[in-house]
């Protein structure tokens, strides 16, 4: 009751009919946001749903706190009928930890999508919290916006006479038009500072702001001869792609970067900040004006260096392989005699695929010799470096390296994926090394957290496994690399410290098979002996996963892309190990599997 007086003082109406808003009948563009727990939600993923309900959330807002139980009741009523319920928080002041804490305190068991850039709330024309948006996935049209019902508050003693939300849902589920598609209600105001500045967005300078941002974040790939499908060569091209750029920025598809920014500082981070996202989208929404000043994109010189990491110390040619036009090819493990005749320490590897279109990946295997026999084939083996589309040269951290003994040969794992045209592959691998009399200070190791025994049920939208590893020696972790195939969905690496405290080290909420990203720490992370690393990985074997080769199949571990993996690779060194100094304890295998 103590909030009643405050309610009475609230202005009751939402500002209706804004210029910058989606009205019933209009399309809600796709977007992707993380929720308070770091899970990814993309609107258009839910195309199998019959309706999507999005309620505007805000921390500290009593109306939201009262609306949540009412929304929960409605969710219960529509259980099993294909209605998805989400909350959207566009409050500038609400940080994720605070939202998660309040959600816990008030038992908010809905995903709260965090719209820190405010781009989604801006497009929807959000004004106050507790407004609900009902979206019909058939055509992605908004069918209702307004309060859940006509109560001024959601206190039980004031029964509602109009049930806007359930009426809208009943109509939508029945495939009928929604009678009342808009209504006014109460809520706490959400501050959208850019709304007032909207008219100034046309003054965002292409020359001084936009093009430099594109050069910083995009043209490494989107240049002539680059891996991006189109080259950002000049303003006209960018203007032409502007709606598409808006889409890939809103869905966070570009730049390709799949780690949750909430955890870890990564030196190779490719994502945009919220401010950069806003700048790009606001400029595009203002018509992507050219403005004045020179076009910096004209000055972008394509990178024509054959080897991005510089002149190699050794280039190894992978034996030529005839890839047929069709069929499934088992992994190949070609071996090349080591021409060096001396021990060296590998410090970097750059892999150049030959028949790019028909290569899924290449791995330069590690030189571990077991029982006098070099480890050759087999999955899960250690590797020096891998290549998959989108990967850069693999450069080991300063002062580290991997010993490549003179009696080891170069072994590669080649995964060819025929793509309709018979081609011959001539791949090349460049090695960069230090001589044995000038070794790096620390030997580098790789380990893999991996479950081989999972079985993903057909159609499962999310199915996961968790594996853990006891850490018996202090280690310094340099990077993580999740590896999975087309059904890979998300992965999390956690550490449980000896005192029981837990920390999330890496969260990849939307794994993308096309980008085998290595997440490189800015500052390597110390994991003390007695800790446990815990790797959780999830797959999406449903029809909603556009990459899924066959949602009707139960899927197990396997090398081929239609089979699955869900590995968490960890590259590290032992804190008490140095090259040339006797190891104080037994050295665990450089790569080991559960
Ligand atoms: C690391 C390389 C890389 C970077 C950096 C990168 N892109 Fe891309 N981009 C690609 C690749 C490869 C594709 C095609 C495959 C895909 O969509 O994942 C693509 C696709 C796109 C598309 C979609 C084309 C279509 O029709 O599907 C757009 C638009 C785009 N990028 C814009 C951008 C923008 C804007 C940036 C910078 C903010 C950026 N990209 C940064 C590699 C990159």
Describe the structure.
It is a single chain. The chain is 15% helix and 28% strand. With 594 residues, the chain is an alpha+beta fold. It folds into four domains: 4-194, Glutaredoxin (3-Layer(aba) Sandwich); 197-298, no CATH class; 314-440, Jelly Rolls (Sandwich); 445-574, Sandwich (Jelly Rolls). Strands 8, 11, 16, 17, 20 and 21 form a six-stranded mixed sheet that branches. It has a five-stranded mixed sheet with strand order 5-4-3-6-7, covered by helices on one side. α7 (206-217) packs across α9 and α8 crosses α9 (274-285). It binds heme C (HEC).
Secondary structure elements and pairings:
Layout: H1 4-8, E1 32-34, E2 40-42, E3 51-57, H2 62-77, E4 83-89, H3 96-105, E5 112-114, H4 119-124, E6 132-136, E7 141-146, H5 164-173, H6 193-196, H7 206-217, H8 235-250, H9 274-285, E8 314-317, E9 321-323, E10 335-336, E11 344-352, E12 359-365, E13 369-370, E14 373-374, E15 383-387, E16 394-395, E17 400-404, E18 410-416, E19 423-425, E20 428-435, E21 442-443, E22 445-449, E23 455-456, E24 463-470, E25 475-484, E26 488-496, E27 502-508, E28 519-527, E29 532-539, E30 555-556, E31 566-574
Parallel strand pairs: 3-4, 4-5, 17-21
Antiparallel strand pairs: 1-2, 3-6, 6-7, 8-20, 9-19, 10-18, 11-16, 11-17, 11-20, 12-15, 12-18, 13-14, 22-31, 23-30, 24-29, 25-28, 25-31, 26-27, 26-29
Helix pairs in contact: 7-9, 8-9
Residues 217-218, 220-222, 227-229, 241, 244-245, 248, 254-256, 270, 390, 514 line the site of heme C.
